[in-house]
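Record passed on here:
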Amino acid sequence: MSHLPATRRSLLARLSDPTDIEAWSEFVEIYQLAIFRYSCACGMQDADAWEVVQRVLIVVHQKIADWESAGRPGAFRAWLLRTAHRVSLEAMRESLLSVRGTGGEAGDNQMRKIAVADEVDDSIGNWERWAFCYASGIVQREVDPTTWNAFRLTAVSGIPACDAAAQLGLKVGSVYTAKCRVLARIRDIVQDLSWRET
């Protein structure tokens, strides 16, 4: 099965039947990692981001029967993105309430995360972040762990290639090759996403 999130109208129609386990399994396979990575990109910790994934899936389950695209390309992805963003903000606010009593740096940092996340809207930059999170999840499953780690250390964590090479037991050239290969594959998936209908 293709991993690209070309959410077929037929799949969306099947999701309105809560007993269609196959449709829900396909939907979760397509979007779960993208929602998780998006939540992490908003500043959530892993455990909190997985909680957001569950909340978003519950919202989809509750609302999908009434959802209508109004014929707009990308309408479902935009709705899902807004939902993930809103649920992430709610979770961050809940977390803030739990650390507010302690005050200090932890509370200040959480407030800054929420302020930054609140500024995010349905702009091109937000869609690009969503698409990158989705595509990187696909590529991580496609490539071997060493290739992924070379990419993650250099492109995501900003570690110099020579340090990443030493850490992974690779030649510096291999680290650059892995990074370029992963970036090219992510770019291909993101480009394909931009041409999908929904």
User: Anything to note?
Assistant: The longest helix spans residues 75-100. DSSP finds nine helices and no strands in the chain. The radius of gyration is 19 Å. Residues 1-121 form a domain with the Rna Polymerase Sigma Factor; Chain: A fold (CATH 1.10.1740.10).
